[in-house]
Amino acid sequence: MADRHSIDRLWETIEARRDADPETSWTARLLSLGPEKCATKFGEEAIEAVIEAVKGDSEALAREGADVLYHFCIMLAAGGVTLDDVMRELDRREGTSGLVEKASRGG
Ligand SMILES: N=c1c2ncn([C@@H]3O[C@H](COP(=O)(O)OP(=O)(O)OP(=O)(O)O)[C@@H](O)[C@H]3O)c2ncn1[C@@H]1O[C@H](COP(=O)(O)O)[C@@H](O)[C@H]1O
């Protein structure tokens, strides 16, 4: 099983690559393109994962899922949002059913 904290290490790597040479780092190259391009790239990767999910190819979905998580972190980093910000929001929601939350909004 993957280390629970591998996404934390990935985030640290992304932050460390922020000012790296775009010729030698894909991360630095993506971030140098700006928030819009990074968000577009995330959307493309998400669609590739959707395609594998619909096809029912679980190995391909796991690979595309990794691409999605990496490019999600890139989009956050480009937009000035940290992984901790997202985790704090998840923590805040922990224990509240989506059904209860939706009902509280009249849904
Ligand atoms: N997790 C990743 C990771 N996941 C995906 N990718 C790259 O994201 C790129 C996606 O580009 P493309 O859209 O061209 O590829 P594609 O999705 O296959 O699309 P098509 O070829 O079908 O068009 C590929 O080059 C992948 O290698 C990643 N690049 C880097 N990382 C992590 O980031 C670290 C730092 O990488 P560098 O910044 O490159 O040093 C690495 O050590 C990894 O831990």
TrEMBL record:
Pathway the protein contributes to: Amino-acid biosynthesis; L-histidine biosynthesis; L-histidine from 5-phospho-alpha-D-ribose 1-diphosphate: step 2/9
UniProt keyword annotation of Signal present: no
Entry's Gene Ontology BP terms: L-histidine biosynthetic process
Protein name: Phosphoribosyl-ATP pyrophosphatase
Pfam families: PRA-PH (PF01503)
GO molecular function: ATP binding; phosphoribosyl-ATP diphosphatase activity
PANTHER family (alphabetical): HISTIDINE BIOSYNTHESIS BIFUNCTIONAL PROTEIN, HISTIDINE BIOSYNTHESIS BIFUNCTIONAL PROTEIN HIS7
E.C. code: 3.6.1.31
Classification via Gene3D superfamilies: MazG-like
Annotated keywords: Amino-acid biosynthesis, ATP-binding, Cytoplasm, Histidine biosynthesis, Hydrolase, Nucleotide-binding
Record InterPro entries: HisE (IPR008179), PRib-ATP_PPHydrolase-like (IPR021130)
Catalysed reaction equations from the record: 1-(5-phospho-beta-D-ribosyl)-ATP + H2O = 1-(5-phospho-beta-D-ribosyl)-5'-AMP + diphosphate + H(+)
Family: Belongs to the PRA-PH family.
CDD domains: NTP-PPase_HisIE_like
One GO cellular component term: cytoplasm
Compartmental location: Cytoplasm
Main location: cytoplasm
